[in-house]
Structure formats: structure tokens, C-alpha cells
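pasting input
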Amino acid sequence: MTASDLAYVPFVDVEEMMHLILDIGLETCLADLTNYIEEDFRRWPLFDKTPRVAAHSSNGVIELMPTSDGQEYAFKYVNGHPGNMKKGLQTVTAFGLLADVESGYPLLLSEMTLLTALRTAATSALATRLLARPGSRTVAMIGNGAQSEFQALALKKVCGITALRLFDTDPEATRKCMANLAGSGLDITSYKTAEEAVMDADIITTCTADKQMATVLHDNMIGAGVHINAIGGDCPGKTELQADILNRANVFVEYPPQTRIEGEIQQMASDFPVTELWEVLSGTAEGRRDARQITLFDGVGFAIEDFSALRWLRDQVERLGGGKRLDLIADPDDPRDLFGMIERERHRRNPA
Amino acid sequence: MTASDLAYVPFVDVEEMMHLILDIGLETCLADLTNYIEEDFRRWPLFDKTPRVAAHSSNGVIELMPTSDGQEYAFKYVNGHPGNMKKGLQTVTAFGLLADVESGYPLLLSEMTLLTALRTAATSALATRLLARPGSRTVAMIGNGAQSEFQALALKKVCGITALRLFDTDPEATRKCMANLAGSGLDITSYKTAEEAVMDADIITTCTADKQMATVLHDNMIGAGVHINAIGGDCPGKTELQADILNRANVFVEYPPQTRIEGEIQQMASDFPVTELWEVLSGTAEGRRDARQITLFDGVGFAIEDFSALRWLRDQVERLGGGKRLDLIADPDDPRDLFGMIERERHRRNPA
């Protein structure tokens, strides 16, 4: 690449992202992303890892999530503001960047509100493929908001789920989710209580959005052999599961230093035993032992998943073409002459 | 603002930034920026402060620099790769974002390669206005690369500098700087050695770029009463000044936890006494005591300066109009229905 090529940064905006998803097919995107994330989790020790850098306020949080594998660097900007919905705004919005470590130059800037929804669902699917009982076919989804359809379709495509049981404290959210998934081929039922929804489910996924301790699952709701994806508890002070469930389950996490602050296990002692998901993938730790064990993926979202998502997106943009280009990097003819670049623009505008 | 307004993020690209600088006038930009930075330094305790989040590699560093005053949040992405110049690339490139803390929504995305050059010069000017001997008229500039012209013009406009003495190990850099500043009204002389250049100068600014310990100023070059801006030493392992100078001078810094790692004072013990610039501005610490004292601003660049720069830029874009708008934030009609937004796009593309 020449300097002028690098001066223009490929950019995927929201519309472009929607078209890319529609061109490839949402379920294929989710399956491919699951594989990209698995690839990166298998080479986990290579990555620079750090808990996200969070700026908390009374209304929510703004976070930066950087990581690098030594060749490429990625970061995501993401906010979480539960009160936004009432103002007609997204609870979570995000964008991110992939960069070249050798030069520090950006390779791709992208919207990541949609991409985060996809990678979060793909990560749950990866954990479920690894940990759920073989032959699992039914998932109960507690919380039917913006994440729910993506979670359901990822579990269908990646794990062979055929039946979906829905519950939300707001029936309107459940109606929206059912309508959106009407043509998906999933056998969908809605329930009036979380207790009914989780009955006989092989897998339970919780993805509620309140920024508070809200007990979505009680211990007596959880039978033997279930796999749980607890996705909604993802910041300090926000959990979804009663602590008794954590004591009965084997808990799997992304990156313990972050999950102990943000995840369900923030309720537990700092030495509460957890297994890192990447260790199961790489064969250095045990996953599910038997059919009666309760496995719990305490997912909070980690920077490496965003790295994988941006890497996947870059590959799709290269493969399919498209994407816009932003004039984001100043590119003077002589790199030491930033000042002269402005002066040349002056003369271009007003030739003497 | 409505949700749809917020879905489009104002964007200042490199071309737009050049036009804005030319429309306002570079020296006016530098003076205004100096005042914005001073305003924010005066309310320093309000800000969330953290050392930058750095990803180091053998070739350079990629950094994220976030901060917030509780109302607005800003971060900058910036790289530093000294080897880039030989490949025709910028040593430093940057972009950044201003966001609304209450909603987490982005308010402005901007190129910051040019803006960082401006705010770095403005910060030196702020320190010089505060610390240099009254009546200082002559500056010696050691290192005549991409920062040099901005530094010189900021000192001229903000501090009343009239004479500029130049030295660089590469005579080509000095020729470039002289040519660029030919019409500036500054009385400019170039020198074959740093020793000659600093002789009788009231102010010395070092802004060299090597990522290594390089002694640009020796103790015997520094006379009584001089004010020094040491700008180039800005990462671990990179300094410009002999330690003896630090022992003779009163050292002023931006944010000690970052400067002790990155600045000239990385050569000194961890309790080496420094004064924070904001304390002098707010009147809680002493600045220059007398005309014989050596004052040293050990500048490494801090997130609050980027916050000030983005705040200034946002005000200019609002005042002058212009700027582009990026479709960066997914904005479904129902904020819980991200999935439905993709489906509606499908129907829009292929009406049944």
C-alpha cells in the first residue's frame, strides 16, 4: 500500500453493514463470526489483554475496549445507557477500528452497534456449542429486547436449536421478537412467567438490560443438565442470577479480571472458581463433564470478540468490495511537512 | 436533538480541517486553542484522569487517551511510529471523538493529526505564557520537523516571540521550516549546531522525534533564566535533556502519573519534585519566582488537551457550519428492534 492509499480509511457505516448482512445472510454471518471468534480464542495467549477502560456516570457508561495480537490492533467505543430507550435512543451504540500494528495506521473504521449484536450472539453460540448437552434443542430466552433475535438465530444456526421459549417483563418486547422470528423456522412459544419459560429448556439465555441487581433466574428454576448463557449482567452492579445458581454450576468466563468486576460472579468471593472459555477450546481445561452438570457461560463481552468481528468484517469488505473511504489520515507529500500541506491547500484554493 | 439527528455523527475530515484552519487563520486557531486548554486546566479537578492506554510494539505505540468532565467525554486514538517517515508515512496520526456523557452518543468525530499538532503547540504556548521571563522575545527550536512551525507560530501569537533560531541534525528539515515560515514576520536564523542555536535564547523548545534516549540539550548549554519546552520526549525510553538540567530547573508537568513514565523526568527518582501546570494556573502553586530561575515544561501531551481541542472544534463547526455527517449510529424506529431495522432494509431493497 502507498501512503495515499493509507490516507483513506475504509469505512463501513450502518447502511453498508445492513447491506453486507443481507447480502451474506444473517445466519451465515453469525456462523462465520462464531468461527472467527473461536479461531482467536484458540490463540488467546498471543493477545494483549486489558479490562475495558470505563467512564461511569449516573446514567450509564462509556467504554474503550482495545486489544492486539501483535499484527493487528482493534478497539471499540461502546456506551451502555439503560435510560436511553425511554428517550428513543439505543441503550448500546458502538463503533470500532482495526489498525496495523507495524505502522499504527487504521485499516478499517466501522459502525459496531449491529456488529456488536452479531458478535455477542456468536460468542453465546460458541460457548453453547462447547458446553451444552449434546442433543440440546430447546432454548428459553429471558429478555426479548434488541439482542434476542440475534441470540436465537445464532443458536439455531450454530447449535441446531429448533424450539424457542420467550419471556420478557414487557409483553410488547416478546411480541416484537416473535414477529421478527416468524419466518425463521424456529418453533416459538411465549410465556407469562420466566418460571414457565425455562421449564424443560435445554438452554437458558438471559439478556435483560437494567443497570441494577435484578434476579431474573432463581435457583429453584434451574434443573440438572441445563446450559445457561448469562449475557445481560455486564457492568458493576448489574447481575441477573441468584448466587445459589452460581454455586451449583460450573462457571465459564471470557477474561476473569473483567468478569469478576462486571459479570454474575461479581456476587461471589474473588477466588470463586471459574474456567476460561479459551482453555476449554484449546484442550487445557475440562468443559462439560456429564449430562447432569449445570454449565454457565457468564458472558460480559471482551475486546478479543470485537477484534474477531472487525477482522471478519475486513475480510468480507475485501472479498465483496463496497465500503466507503474516509479522509481520516493527514498525508503530506513529505511526512515531516504537515504545515506545508495546509499551505499547499491555501494555494490550491486561492491560486495567486 | 431527535434520535435521527443523533444517528448522524458530525465528521471533520482532513480536508475540512485544513479549510477550517485556513478560514479562521492558523494563528487565531492557535490562540483560541490556548485559551480553551487554559479554561480546562483551570477546572482540572473536575476531570476523570487516567494515563493513556498504550499498546507498545517494536516499531512504535498505539494509544487511546480518554477523559471526561462529567458533561462531555473525549478520546483520541494516536500512534507514534518513528520508522514510518522512512516509508513515507506520518510518525504520528490521530483521530478522536467527542461524546455526550448523558446519552453516550457521539457528538463529533474528527481527524486529529492536524488538530494534535495545533493543540501540542497551544499547550507549549500556554506553559510559556505562564512561565517564561516577561519580555522573552527569542526562541531556539531544536528539531525542525512536523511540529516546529506550529510551535513557532503559537509562541509568536500567544507569547509575542519575534526571533526564531533553528537547528536540526538534518539541514533539510531546517530548510523546510525556514521556507514555511518565510512570510510569518518572524526573524529566522539557522545554525549548524544546537550550541549556537540556543545561545542567548530566552526560550528553548526541543521537539525531536527519535524513540530513544537522545541528549539534545547538555547542561552547559543552558543559561540562567531560560524557559524550556521539552516536547519530544513523550514515551518510555525517549528523552531529550541531560539529567543535570532537570536538577537545576523547576519542572512543570501536565499529569505526573503519565509524565513520570513518558517525560524527561523518567530519568529521575519517582519522588523528583514537579509542579502541575494547572496548579499554577489556578493559583495554588508558584510559577516562575525570579528572572534567573530555569523553568522547564516537560510536556508529553495529555488527554484533557485533546478534550479541549475537540470542544473548540465542535464550537467552530457549530459556528461556521460545514463538516460532513457519518451514518455511524444504528437508529431503529424502536430502539429495542435492531433486528427489525435490518429486516425493513431487506424489504426496502426488495419490495415483494
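fyi Chain B has a mean pLDDT of 92.
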